[in-house]
Design a protein that fits this description.
- By secondary structure, the protein is mainly α.
- The chain has two domains: 90 residues, Recoverin, domain 1 (Orthogonal Bundle); 85 residues, EF-hand (Recoverin, domain 1, Orthogonal Bundle).
- The protein has ten helices and two strands; from the N terminus they run H-H-E-H-H-E-H-H-H-H-H-H.
- The chain has a two-stranded antiparallel sheet.
- The longest helix has 26 residues.
- The chain is elongated, with a radius of gyration of 20 Å.
- The termini are far apart.
């Protein structure tokens, strides 16, 4: 049973940050799989007012499949009706998802525009050279499979660190982002993550995350 005791207090900054992370995962997953949040709850919304019971909110929550009960409870808390106990406003969640998907699409356009200046032939050759080593090649392959199967938009896990949109972040930021987006679903070990870091490392010790994202998603 997922339902919590009624708690209408505003989410803390830490909880809001966690919600933002969950929202990005949901938005990317729904976009990839063509899922519409509003349609997921339509059968329960007999009055067409955007409200469902909290148990209905959990029952029809459209994923992603790796979301935890604690994460689902946090989403429900975020969208509890302020005055009507036991009800959640799924339309607000739907609107949040749509806005996040627009933001993701905007980032992708900016990235693709920037890609026009890259020597893509050299970049592909660079990847092929890495793949000649069986260990590194197999690491890239299992990341790409995990990204494809789970509808992961890898850029989402790095872009907040790249305020100047340079395509480069620190090693620690890259390790954290890679662990969050692919560490579990691709079953990456610390050594495998380090091999990816070493491959995309710049001369000054930072990491070219946009090249990694481009190769994993295309």
């Amino acid at each position: 049973m997922l339902c919590d005791p009624v708690n209408r207090r505003a989410l803390s900054p830490a909880s809001l940050s966690r919600y933002d992370y969950i929202l990005s995962r949901c938005a990317a997953f729904y976009k990839y799989h063509g899922i519409n949040v509003k349609s997921s709850y339509a059968d329960f919304d007999k009055h067409n007012n955007g409200l469902v019971t909290e148990s209905q909110f959990y029952r029809s929550f459209p994923g992603p499949p790796d979301i935890t009960e604690a994460e689902m409870r946090l989403v429900a808390r975020k969208h509890r009706h302020p005055d009507k106990a036991g009800l959640c406003n799924y339309l607000k969640f739907h609107d949040d998802v749509v806005e996040r998907q627009k933001a993701i699409a905007g980032d992708e356009k900016d990235y693709l525009d920037g890609q026009k200046t890259l020597d893509t032939v050299a970049l592909a050759h660079h990847f092929q050279e890495a793949s000649r080593g069986s260990d590194l090649g197999s690491i890239f392959e299992k990341i790409r499979i995990a990204v494809y199967k789970n509808g992961v938009r890898t850029t989402e896990f790095f872009r907040d660190h790249d305020k100047l949109r340079s395509g480069i972040i620190t090693e620690n930021q890259f390790v954290c982002g890679l662990s969050l987006c692919c560490g579990t679903i691709a079953n990456l070990s610390r050594d495998e993550i380090q091999q990816v870091v070493d491959f995309y490392r710049t001369e000054d010790g930072r990491v070219r995350y946009k090249e990694f994202c481009h190769m994993m998603e295309n």
